Predict the 3D structure of the following.
Amino acid sequence: MCGAAFDEDFRCRYEIARDEASLAKLRGSKYVKAALRRGFLDEMRTALESGVPVLFTGTPCHVAAVRRMFAKFADTLFTVDLICAGCPDQSIFDRYLENNWGLSNVAKYEFRSKARGWRHRHYLLHVVLKDGREIWRERGEDEYMTAMSSGLGRSGGCQNCPYCTMDRPGDLTIGDFWLVPEEMDDGKGTSAILVNNEKGRRLFESVRGDFVKTAEYPPFYLQERQWRLRTPPPLAPGRAAFMECIASGMSVKEAVEKAQEAD
Ligand SMILES: Cc1cc2nc3c(=O)[nH]c(=O)nc-3n(C[C@H](O)[C@H](O)[C@H](O)COP(=O)(O)OP(=O)(O)OC[C@H]3O[C@@H](n4cnc5c(N)ncnc54)[C@H](O)[C@@H]3O)c2cc1C
Ligand code: SF4
Protein backbone atom coordinates (compact mmCIF):
# COMPACT_ATOMS: atom_id res chain seq x y z
CA MET A 1 0.00 0.00 0.00
CA CYS A 2 1.45 3.37 -1.01
CA GLY A 3 0.37 6.70 0.41
CA ALA A 4 1.60 9.91 1.99
CA ALA A 5 3.33 9.77 5.38
CA PHE A 6 5.31 12.15 7.55
CA ASP A 7 8.93 11.25 8.25
CA GLU A 8 10.49 12.03 11.66
CA ASP A 9 11.01 15.69 10.59
CA PHE A 10 7.40 16.07 9.42
CA ARG A 11 8.38 15.98 5.78
CA CYS A 12 5.49 14.66 3.72
CA ARG A 13 6.43 11.98 1.22
CA TYR A 14 4.99 8.91 -0.41
CA GLU A 15 5.96 5.68 1.30
CA ILE A 16 5.19 1.98 1.04
CA ALA A 17 3.49 0.08 3.87
CA ARG A 18 4.08 -3.65 3.61
CA ASP A 19 2.17 -4.78 6.71
CA GLU A 20 -0.92 -3.70 8.62
CA ALA A 21 1.01 -1.96 11.41
CA SER A 22 2.79 0.36 8.95
CA LEU A 23 -0.52 1.44 7.45
CA ALA A 24 -1.17 3.83 10.35
CA LYS A 25 1.40 6.35 9.13
CA LEU A 26 -0.35 6.60 5.74
CA ARG A 27 -3.72 7.41 7.29
CA GLY A 28 -4.91 10.97 7.77
CA SER A 29 -4.84 13.94 5.40
CA LYS A 30 -1.57 15.81 5.34
CA TYR A 31 -2.14 19.20 3.75
CA VAL A 32 1.44 19.49 2.53
CA LYS A 33 2.62 18.66 -0.97
CA ALA A 34 3.91 15.07 -0.83
CA ALA A 35 7.29 14.32 -2.41
CA LEU A 36 7.23 11.59 -5.08
CA ARG A 37 10.86 10.48 -4.70
CA ARG A 38 12.90 8.39 -7.11
CA GLY A 39 13.76 5.89 -4.36
CA PHE A 40 10.07 5.38 -3.64
CA LEU A 41 9.24 4.87 -7.34
CA ASP A 42 12.09 2.35 -7.64
CA GLU A 43 10.65 0.41 -4.68
CA MET A 44 7.22 0.48 -6.30
CA ARG A 45 8.67 -0.81 -9.58
CA THR A 46 10.47 -3.64 -7.81
CA ALA A 47 7.25 -4.70 -6.08
CA LEU A 48 5.27 -4.62 -9.33
CA GLU A 49 7.97 -6.47 -11.26
CA SER A 50 7.93 -9.24 -8.67
CA GLY A 51 4.18 -9.65 -9.15
CA VAL A 52 3.05 -8.03 -5.88
CA PRO A 53 -0.24 -6.11 -6.26
CA VAL A 54 0.26 -2.44 -5.34
CA LEU A 55 -2.35 0.11 -4.29
CA PHE A 56 -1.31 3.75 -4.68
CA THR A 57 -3.32 6.55 -3.04
CA GLY A 58 -2.46 10.15 -3.79
CA THR A 59 -3.38 13.45 -5.37
CA PRO A 60 -4.86 13.03 -8.88
CA CYS A 61 -1.78 14.55 -10.55
CA HIS A 62 0.45 11.99 -8.83
CA VAL A 63 -1.97 9.12 -9.58
CA ALA A 64 -1.94 10.10 -13.28
CA ALA A 65 1.88 10.21 -13.25
CA VAL A 66 2.20 6.82 -11.54
CA ARG A 67 -0.32 5.22 -13.89
CA ARG A 68 1.58 6.46 -16.92
CA MET A 69 4.90 5.36 -15.48
CA PHE A 70 3.66 1.86 -14.65
CA ALA A 71 1.18 1.41 -17.52
CA LYS A 72 2.39 -2.12 -18.26
CA PHE A 73 1.33 -3.28 -14.78
CA ALA A 74 -2.32 -2.32 -15.32
CA ASP A 75 -3.56 -5.65 -13.85
CA THR A 76 -1.74 -5.38 -10.53
CA LEU A 77 -1.60 -1.61 -9.97
CA PHE A 78 -4.68 -0.26 -8.17
CA THR A 79 -5.12 3.49 -7.74
CA VAL A 80 -7.15 5.76 -5.48
CA ASP A 81 -7.14 9.51 -6.10
CA LEU A 82 -8.34 12.25 -3.77
CA ILE A 83 -10.78 15.03 -4.49
CA CYS A 84 -8.09 17.70 -4.39
CA ALA A 85 -7.82 21.46 -3.92
CA GLY A 86 -4.01 21.55 -3.73
CA CYS A 87 -1.97 22.58 -0.68
CA PRO A 88 1.18 24.48 0.35
CA ASP A 89 4.75 23.31 -0.22
CA GLN A 90 6.82 21.68 2.51
CA SER A 91 8.88 24.86 3.14
CA ILE A 92 5.78 26.75 4.31
CA PHE A 93 4.78 23.94 6.69
CA ASP A 94 8.36 23.75 8.06
CA ARG A 95 8.36 27.47 8.81
CA TYR A 96 4.96 27.30 10.50
CA LEU A 97 6.03 24.41 12.76
CA GLU A 98 9.28 26.18 13.61
CA ASN A 99 7.54 29.48 14.42
CA ASN A 100 4.84 27.90 16.57
CA TRP A 101 6.56 25.20 18.60
CA GLY A 102 10.00 24.58 17.13
CA LEU A 103 10.07 21.67 14.69
CA SER A 104 12.15 19.47 17.01
CA ASN A 105 9.57 19.80 19.81
CA VAL A 106 6.66 18.32 17.85
CA ALA A 107 5.84 14.65 18.48
CA LYS A 108 2.62 14.25 16.51
CA TYR A 109 0.66 16.43 14.09
CA GLU A 110 -2.87 15.73 12.84
CA PHE A 111 -4.45 18.21 10.43
CA ARG A 112 -7.86 16.74 10.99
CA SER A 113 -8.29 14.76 14.14
CA LYS A 114 -11.15 12.30 14.01
CA ALA A 115 -11.31 12.18 17.82
CA ARG A 116 -14.32 14.53 17.92
CA GLY A 117 -15.52 14.05 14.34
CA TRP A 118 -15.37 16.58 11.51
CA ARG A 119 -17.90 18.52 9.48
CA HIS A 120 -17.93 20.81 6.46
CA ARG A 121 -15.47 23.63 7.32
CA HIS A 122 -14.96 22.29 10.86
CA TYR A 123 -11.69 20.44 11.15
CA LEU A 124 -9.95 20.06 14.47
CA LEU A 125 -6.20 20.36 14.37
CA HIS A 126 -4.34 18.29 16.98
CA VAL A 127 -0.69 18.74 17.88
CA VAL A 128 1.15 16.75 20.55
CA LEU A 129 4.47 18.15 21.78
CA LYS A 130 7.36 16.05 23.08
CA ASP A 131 6.82 17.50 26.59
CA GLY A 132 3.30 16.00 26.54
CA ARG A 133 1.37 19.24 25.91
CA GLU A 134 -1.56 18.97 23.48
CA ILE A 135 -2.88 21.73 21.26
CA TRP A 136 -6.35 21.68 19.73
CA ARG A 137 -7.37 24.34 17.20
CA GLU A 138 -10.37 24.87 14.95
CA ARG A 139 -9.42 25.35 11.31
CA GLY A 140 -10.07 29.14 11.45
CA GLU A 141 -7.84 29.62 14.51
CA ASP A 142 -4.72 28.32 12.78
CA GLU A 143 -2.67 30.33 10.30
CA TYR A 144 -1.45 27.33 8.31
CA MET A 145 -4.98 26.04 7.80
CA THR A 146 -6.05 29.58 6.83
CA ALA A 147 -3.22 29.73 4.27
CA MET A 148 -4.25 26.30 3.00
CA SER A 149 -8.02 26.71 2.81
CA SER A 150 -8.00 30.30 1.47
CA GLY A 151 -5.50 29.28 -1.22
CA LEU A 152 -2.93 31.92 -0.12
CA GLY A 153 -0.30 29.25 0.47
CA ARG A 154 -1.31 26.86 -2.30
CA SER A 155 1.60 25.68 -4.41
CA GLY A 156 1.71 26.98 -7.99
CA GLY A 157 -0.09 25.43 -10.96
CA CYS A 158 -3.20 24.10 -9.20
CA GLN A 159 -5.33 26.87 -10.74
CA ASN A 160 -4.89 25.04 -14.06
CA CYS A 161 -5.46 21.55 -12.64
CA PRO A 162 -6.99 19.25 -15.28
CA TYR A 163 -8.27 16.81 -12.62
CA CYS A 164 -11.02 18.91 -11.05
CA THR A 165 -13.66 17.07 -13.04
CA MET A 166 -15.67 13.85 -12.84
CA ASP A 167 -13.21 12.22 -15.27
CA ARG A 168 -10.88 10.73 -12.68
CA PRO A 169 -7.41 9.18 -13.03
CA GLY A 170 -7.92 6.64 -10.19
CA ASP A 171 -9.93 3.41 -10.03
CA LEU A 172 -11.58 4.95 -6.97
CA THR A 173 -11.80 8.56 -5.78
CA ILE A 174 -12.12 9.48 -2.11
CA GLY A 175 -13.14 12.78 -0.56
CA ASP A 176 -15.35 14.45 2.01
CA PHE A 177 -19.09 14.18 1.65
CA TRP A 178 -19.81 17.84 2.35
CA LEU A 179 -23.45 18.74 3.08
CA VAL A 180 -24.14 15.09 3.67
CA PRO A 181 -27.80 13.98 3.74
CA GLU A 182 -29.16 13.53 7.27
CA GLU A 183 -29.58 9.77 6.96
CA MET A 184 -25.79 9.42 6.46
CA ASP A 185 -24.69 11.94 9.09
CA ASP A 186 -23.70 10.60 12.51
CA GLY A 187 -21.70 13.73 13.41
CA LYS A 188 -18.36 11.93 13.05
CA GLY A 189 -17.71 12.88 9.41
CA THR A 190 -18.85 11.09 6.26
CA SER A 191 -16.57 10.20 3.36
CA ALA A 192 -17.45 10.02 -0.31
CA ILE A 193 -16.18 7.34 -2.67
CA LEU A 194 -16.52 7.52 -6.43
CA VAL A 195 -16.31 4.16 -8.20
CA ASN A 196 -14.68 5.03 -11.53
CA ASN A 197 -14.34 1.74 -13.37
CA GLU A 198 -14.76 -2.02 -13.08
CA LYS A 199 -11.50 -2.46 -11.20
CA GLY A 200 -12.65 0.20 -8.75
CA ARG A 201 -15.98 -1.60 -8.37
CA ARG A 202 -14.20 -4.86 -7.46
CA LEU A 203 -11.96 -3.03 -5.03
CA PHE A 204 -14.89 -1.28 -3.38
CA GLU A 205 -17.03 -4.41 -3.16
CA SER A 206 -14.13 -6.24 -1.46
CA VAL A 207 -14.25 -3.79 1.49
CA ARG A 208 -17.86 -2.61 1.42
CA GLY A 209 -18.84 -4.85 4.32
CA ASP A 210 -16.22 -3.18 6.57
CA PHE A 211 -17.93 0.23 6.54
CA VAL A 212 -20.32 1.18 9.35
CA LYS A 213 -22.91 2.18 6.76
CA THR A 214 -22.97 2.87 3.01
CA ALA A 215 -25.52 4.38 0.64
CA GLU A 216 -25.36 5.02 -3.09
CA TYR A 217 -26.06 8.37 -4.73
CA PRO A 218 -25.89 9.40 -8.40
CA PRO A 219 -22.48 10.99 -9.23
CA PHE A 220 -23.95 14.44 -9.98
CA TYR A 221 -25.23 14.57 -6.39
CA LEU A 222 -21.63 14.73 -5.14
CA GLN A 223 -20.47 16.94 -8.00
CA GLU A 224 -23.05 19.56 -6.99
CA ARG A 225 -21.59 19.61 -3.45
CA GLN A 226 -17.94 19.55 -4.44
CA TRP A 227 -16.38 22.51 -6.23
CA ARG A 228 -13.26 20.47 -6.92
CA LEU A 229 -15.22 18.05 -9.10
CA ARG A 230 -16.25 20.99 -11.30
CA THR A 231 -13.49 23.62 -11.47
CA PRO A 232 -9.84 24.01 -10.42
CA PRO A 233 -9.16 26.09 -7.30
CA PRO A 234 -8.92 29.78 -8.27
CA LEU A 235 -5.77 31.81 -7.62
CA ALA A 236 -6.36 33.60 -4.29
CA PRO A 237 -6.21 37.41 -4.66
CA GLY A 238 -3.60 37.88 -1.90
CA ARG A 239 -1.40 34.94 -2.95
CA ALA A 240 1.35 37.00 -4.60
CA ALA A 241 1.61 39.21 -1.49
CA PHE A 242 1.65 36.12 0.76
CA MET A 243 4.45 34.49 -1.24
CA GLU A 244 6.50 37.72 -1.21
CA CYS A 245 6.19 37.91 2.57
CA ILE A 246 7.25 34.26 2.88
CA ALA A 247 10.21 34.87 0.55
CA SER A 248 11.27 37.81 2.73
CA GLY A 249 11.48 35.48 5.74
CA MET A 250 8.25 36.47 7.52
CA SER A 251 6.36 33.98 9.69
CA VAL A 252 3.31 32.26 8.16
CA LYS A 253 1.07 34.09 10.63
CA GLU A 254 2.41 37.54 9.66
CA ALA A 255 2.34 36.64 5.95
CA VAL A 256 -1.35 35.65 6.21
CA GLU A 257 -2.17 38.91 8.01
CA LYS A 258 -0.26 41.05 5.45
CA ALA A 259 -1.87 39.21 2.52
CA GLN A 260 -5.33 39.68 4.00
CA GLU A 261 -4.63 43.42 4.53
CA ALA A 262 -3.38 43.75 0.94
CA ASP A 263 -6.48 42.02 -0.47
C1 LIG B 1 -3.85 18.28 -0.48
C2 LIG B 1 -5.23 17.72 -0.27
C3 LIG B 1 -6.34 18.45 -0.68
C4 LIG B 1 -7.63 17.92 -0.51
N1 LIG B 1 -8.71 18.65 -0.94
C5 LIG B 1 -9.98 18.13 -0.79
C6 LIG B 1 -11.14 18.82 -1.26
O1 LIG B 1 -11.05 19.94 -1.77
N2 LIG B 1 -12.35 18.21 -1.11
C7 LIG B 1 -12.48 16.97 -0.56
O2 LIG B 1 -13.61 16.47 -0.47
N3 LIG B 1 -11.41 16.29 -0.11
C8 LIG B 1 -10.17 16.83 -0.22
N4 LIG B 1 -9.07 16.12 0.19
C9 LIG B 1 -9.28 14.73 0.70
C10 LIG B 1 -9.64 14.71 2.18
O3 LIG B 1 -8.74 15.50 2.93
C11 LIG B 1 -9.56 13.28 2.71
O4 LIG B 1 -8.28 12.75 2.49
C12 LIG B 1 -10.54 12.35 2.05
O5 LIG B 1 -11.85 12.78 2.34
C13 LIG B 1 -10.38 10.91 2.57
O6 LIG B 1 -10.51 10.93 3.96
P1 LIG B 1 -10.24 9.64 4.81
O7 LIG B 1 -10.33 10.08 6.24
O8 LIG B 1 -11.09 8.54 4.34
O9 LIG B 1 -8.76 9.22 4.43
P2 LIG B 1 -7.43 9.84 4.97
O10 LIG B 1 -7.05 9.12 6.21
O11 LIG B 1 -7.51 11.31 5.01
O12 LIG B 1 -6.32 9.44 3.89
C14 LIG B 1 -6.59 9.13 2.58
C15 LIG B 1 -5.29 8.94 1.84
O13 LIG B 1 -4.78 10.21 1.48
C16 LIG B 1 -3.40 10.11 1.35
N5 LIG B 1 -2.83 11.45 1.58
C17 LIG B 1 -2.85 12.15 2.73
N6 LIG B 1 -2.20 13.32 2.56
C18 LIG B 1 -1.74 13.34 1.28
C19 LIG B 1 -0.96 14.24 0.52
N7 LIG B 1 -0.51 15.39 1.02
N8 LIG B 1 -0.69 13.93 -0.76
C20 LIG B 1 -1.11 12.76 -1.28
N9 LIG B 1 -1.83 11.85 -0.62
C21 LIG B 1 -2.15 12.14 0.65
C22 LIG B 1 -2.97 9.12 2.43
O14 LIG B 1 -1.87 8.40 2.01
C23 LIG B 1 -4.19 8.21 2.56
O15 LIG B 1 -3.94 7.01 1.89
C24 LIG B 1 -7.79 16.63 0.07
C25 LIG B 1 -6.67 15.93 0.50
C26 LIG B 1 -5.39 16.43 0.32
C27 LIG B 1 -4.21 15.63 0.80
S1 SF4 C 1 -5.22 20.55 -7.38
FE1 SF4 C 1 -4.59 19.29 -9.14
S2 SF4 C 1 -2.49 19.95 -9.64
FE2 SF4 C 1 -2.97 20.68 -7.55
S3 SF4 C 1 -2.18 19.04 -6.20
FE3 SF4 C 1 -4.36 18.62 -6.58
S4 SF4 C 1 -4.36 17.25 -8.36
FE4 SF4 C 1 -2.34 18.15 -8.27
The two ends are 43 Å apart (CA to CA). The chain has a mean pLDDT of 95.
